[in-house]
Design the sequence.
């Protein structure tokens, strides 16, 4: 059974940093594309970043380029989202997800498996 579990959310002041983790079980992160998404209250879900299977090609939303960094740790089977220079507009529930297709590259296809989300609040 494939499962994704986010952690690392919290409350941070503007300009601060957080690192989100997406612990993956049932598949190897090297073999599947994993994406980070967010949904703010009253807004549509937005893709934040994605890391491709195998070659690790990465994409970022324009809104987070230069501030967020996605990475993966193969031994830990975990994908991270390092968030810096956080802004109130980054407040959202952050989810990781995969299309559960071996070898896919970003952007991912239909997202089949989701985590439960991690709340991030950026406020002074």
Sequence:
């Amino acid at each position: 059974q494939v499962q994704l579990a986010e952690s690392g959310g919290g409350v941070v002041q503007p300009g601060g940093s957080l690192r989100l983790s997406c612990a993956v079980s049932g598949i190897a992160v090297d073999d599947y594309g994993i994406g980070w998404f967010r949904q703010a209250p009253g807004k549509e879900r937005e893709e934040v970043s994605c890391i491709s299977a195998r070659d690790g090609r990465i994409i970022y939303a324009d809104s987070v380029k230069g501030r967020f960094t996605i990475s993966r740790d193969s031994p830990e089977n975990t994908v991270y989202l390092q968030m810096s220079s956080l802004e109130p507009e980054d407040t959202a529930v952050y989810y990781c997800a995969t299309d559960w297709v071996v070898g896919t590259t970003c952007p991912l296809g239909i997202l089949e498996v989701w985590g439960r989300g991690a709340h991030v609040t950026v406020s002074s």
